Amino acid sequence: MSVLTHLLPDSNNLKLENCQLDEIKTQIKLIVSAINRVVNCPVCNQPTHKIHSRYERKLADLPWADYSITLQLRVRKFFCINTLCKRRIFTERLTNVTAPWARRTLRLAQRLSAIALANGGAAGVRLSEQLGIKVSRNTLLNLVRSIPLPPIVTPHTLGVDDFCFRKCKTYGTALIDLERRRPIALLKDAKAETLAEWLKAHPGVKVVSRDRSKTYESGIRQGAPEAIQVADRFHLLQNLFQTQEPSLWYSRQSTS
Q1: Is 189 exposed, middle or buried (0-12, 13-18, 19+ CB in 10 A)?
Q2: Residue 27: which residues within 8 A CB-CB, separation 6 or more?
Q3: Cα distance between residue 188 and residue 211, in whole Å
């Protein structure tokens, strides 16, 4: 039992009461209880020790070898002793174990998020099954959507190009941080005014790499007039190929 205790998500604040092994279903159920005597109200942060009631919740956890793990977590509800607080009764928060109302531990959610980011929905499900984790495609995609976006750091070198919301119908603008090689924004359309507004709201761009679009040229000139505009590599190579294509055609005709 001492070894199992160290495998809990938070061995300092959880106590292992019992362990149930089902060899047929290859499942292990851990009966676990919270041991903190004093907890803080999530609204006013006032510490309290007055227990209102107890209840149980089930959490899926990372598998151990070939066994799936379920935590049967016994938690408590407390009275808030702060008379000025609007919350009279609250459930204790186990911030190192799980999120409120979640049905899986934080470490399992983090593992699934990493799988979904690397493989997507359907492929992530197949890999999860190989690792002994049962999960749906939509669950993986929802975990990816719930990951907070990193703060936008205005790059010195910005890439601008259009992309399709709907082919030949609706276009938007993709902004790429060429220094860190990652997208930082998707604009709702491919208009000069929209690009100019973004550049004005994020000053500091020194160089903008773009295609031959006059619209983007105008938007950059309005939003970042001091920025240097350069043609991107793709369109330079495309223009070079288009220039060389007639001569290549004549060379083929002459040798045939």
Answers
A1: middle
A2: 21, 67, 68, 69, 70
A3: 18
Instruction: Give the DSSP per-residue string, 161-221.
Output: EEEEEETTTEEEEEEEETTTTEEEEEESS--HHHHHHHHHHS----EEEE-S-HHHHHHHH
Q: Which residues pair with 48 in a beta bridge?
A: 39
Count CB-CB contacts under 10 A for residue 150. Answer: 9
pLDDT in tens, 209-224: 998 889 999 999 999 9
Nearest to 16 by CA among 75, 71, 97: 71
**pTM of this prediction?**
0.71
Joined together, the tokens standing for residue 23 give 């060899």
Provide the edge-to-edge strand list for the sheet that holds 157-166.
182-187, 170-177, 157-166, 207-210, 228-231
Enumerate the H helices of the chain as residue ranges: 2-6, 106-119, 121-130, 137-146, 192-201, 214-223, 233-255
- Burial string for 63-79 (b: 16+ CB within 10 Å, else e) reads beeeebbebbbbbbebe
pLDDT at 123 over 80: yes
Q: How far apart are CA 120 and CA 116, in angstroms?
A: 5
* Rounded Cα gap, residues 252 and 256, in angstroms: 6
Separation CA 142–CA 155 (nearest Å): 29
Q: How far is CA 222 from CA 35, 142, 162, 204, 218, in A?
A: 61, 38, 18, 14, 6
Element (H, E) at 54: strand 51-64
